[in-house]
Amino acid sequence: MKWQSFTKKQKAYIIGGILVLLILTWSFLSARILTTGLNRQNLAEGGDNKSAVAEGIILTETKDEVKYWEVYGDEGLYDSKKDVTTLNGVLANFYKDNEVSMSIKSAQAEYNSNEKVITLFDDTFVVLKDGLTLNADKLVWSGNDKPIFAYGHVILTKGCEYLANADEVEISANYDDIKIKGNTVSRVYDRSNNEKK
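The structure corresponding to this sequence follows.
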C-alpha cells in the first residue's frame, strides 16, 4: 500500500499512533535512565530505608498502663534502617513505682528501638530521686532493672556537697550502690562536724 492511497483520516491516525509510540518509548527510556541511579543507591543502602524529621517529639515506654520513661526532644530524626531515633535538646524522666526516680537534661539523645537502650550525649545533667546529681559527657540507660553508666568528666554531688569526680560511674538499678572508676577524686564529709558549727 502506498501512502497516497490512505485517506486524510487514516493518515492522521497513523501519524498520531506513531507519535504516541515515540512518546511512550522516549518516556520509558528516560525513566529507566533517571531511576537507574536511584535504584542502585537504594539497594546499596539496604532498600527500604525511611527517615522522618519532627519538631517537639516525645518518646515514651509504658507497659500495662505503667510508664517506664519519657523523653522529650526539641527536634528528632528517625532512621528506619538502624531503627534509631536521635533527639536534640532533650529532657527525660524515668519512673519507678509510678514516680519520677530520675530526671535528665542533655544536648542530645539516641534511642535504639531494637536494643531498648537510651544514650544521652553532650552536657548531660542527671537528678536522682534522693537528691544526688551527676554531670557527664555520656549516660547509658538500658532498662529499669539494669545499671546506669555515666562516662567522661563525671561529677557527683549531693545537695551542696561535692562527692566525687571520675572517668566512669556505675549506678545500680535501685540507685543505692555507686561505683566510681578510672581517675577519681572523692571527698568524705562528716555530717556531725558540719552540724555542730
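Residues 38-43 have pLDDT under 50 and may be disordered.
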